[in-house]
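ok so for the tutorial part 2 we go from a plain amino acid sequence to predicted structure tokens. step 1 is just haveing the sequence, like this:
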Amino acid sequence: MMLEIFVSFLILFAVWSLSIYNYRNYALPSGIDTENVWATFIDFNTDKDSLKTIYRDLIKQKLSSYPEVEANSFTSSNLPYSFSSSNSSFSYKKNNAMSEIMQVEPSYLKVLKLQLSEGRWFTEGDKVNKVRPIIITKHFKETLFGNENALGKVIGQENEKRQVIGVIDNFKYENDFQALDNCILEPLGGWQSDLLIRVKPGTTVESEAKISKALVQLGKDWSVEIQHLDDMKANKNKMIWVPILILLIVCSFLIFNVALGLFGVLFQTISRRKQEIGVRRAIGATKSHILWHFVGETAVITTFGVILGLFFAVQFPILNVFDVEAFTYVLGIILATISIYFLVILCALFPSKQASEIYPAIALHEE
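step 2 — the prediction. this is what the tokens look like for a chain of 367 residues:
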């Protein structure tokens, strides 16, 4: 019984910790407004960066003629909620940080409605600077610079120096369950052909088809694919919550089987102690005394199983396993402890109640 309680505690601790971790991440603002934003993937059918620059200007000129389009920005292929990634390592003094790097246009700010907490956004004029201006997330700032003011700091190698000119608080570019992470936004390079377009609310499917057709006709053998950014985010979210849901179902099934096992063990144990129950009733023990006596015994056994489980569970916040905040693990331990006591006491109530209903004469006569 103690072994079952120990295993159940560890399962509940894992489930609660995972649930708390993902809920806390989900509750954080994403910082990205995905509504009415299209992710447009264009194949220019050329490898020449100079031609791509000309084609991008041609597309932006064309988009400006449509009243439905509010803003647009070319971006590197690792745009939000895509399956592409580009990262690099940075150091400052004794601190090191790995960060995602996205190359975007100045209009990117308006397309995704990002909010700066410090500094400013870069402009077209910043492209001529020898040191590349960058916008960083607050998490990156805290990881690399600590409590220092990040604005004006220069990082990177000698030939790729970057200067921080702005900071954004939240930028969850992978999914809604993403923890605060490191990301750098810098001016667009010469080869990108992915495009984000913000359209006015109420833009119809017909308008989308019309714009897509117009873009295809601008070049020879171009291909254009338009996806809605909120649909892309929903797909990435599904990749997170579906496995979690499956895990919860499996764990619930395991806990249910453990509960049935506990119920059977308690029922059998109490059935074997009918003579003891009869004697206790005969010397004056009330029904409630018998009931809470067995519930108390079960609680004591549960405590030993929980103590054993706590020994392993407390290692997670102490050792900072998976780089998760200690608060998540501590809350997981508390909820797992409450859950296991609730489960065990619930399993013990019915057999204990049956034991309290036994009449002394019947119990002694049977023995």
